[in-house]
């Protein structure tokens, strides 16, 4: 059990250790649930690159994924224990 918990924590830190992923999280904070195509357009980045980052965030349970037909929609996971911290960080960023 300890190994599984350590792996989960490592995945969480890995997901948050990248500035681009933090930018994606901030974008979702500001805009709510968004389709992967909207995220790609906003960052002017290819879908494979965005999908890689979204997968890491999903695997760490930081964001939620909802599939509608062939499209995936992403939003912040407000049930995650880290959400209150992310909320405070993003709230301060949005006030600058």
From TrEMBL:
Do you know which Gene3D superfamilies this protein is assigned to? Winged helix-like DNA-binding domain superfamily/Winged helix DNA-binding domain
Gene Ontology MF, one: DNA-binding transcription factor activity
Write one Pfam family the protein is assigned to: HTH_5
Q: Which UniProt keywords apply?
A: DNA-binding, Transcription, Transcription regulation
SUPFAM superfamilies in the cross-refs:
Winged helix' DNA-binding domain
Residues of the HTH arsR-type domain: 1-96
Asked if the Swiss-Prot or TrEMBL record annotates the protein with the keyword Lyase, the reply is no
InterPro entries named among the record's database cross-references = ArsR-like_HTH, HTH_ArsR_DNA-bd_dom, HTH_MetalResp_TranReg, WH-like_DNA-bd_sf, WH_DNA-bd_sf
* Name of the protein in question: Winged helix-turn-helix transcriptional regulator
């Amino acid at each position: 059990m300890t190994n599984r918990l350590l792996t989960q924590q490592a995945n969480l830190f890995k997901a948050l250790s990248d500035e681009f992923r933090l930018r994606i999280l901030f974008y979702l904070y500001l805009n709510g649930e968004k389709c992967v195509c909207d995220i790609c357009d906003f960052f002017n980045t290819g879908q494979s690159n965005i999908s890689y980052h979204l997968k890491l965030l999903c695997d760490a349970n930081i964001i939620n994924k909802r599939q509608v037909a062939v499209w995936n929609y992403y939003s912040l996971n407000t049930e995650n224990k880290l959400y209150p911290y992310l909320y405070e960080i993003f709230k301060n960023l949005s006030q600058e």
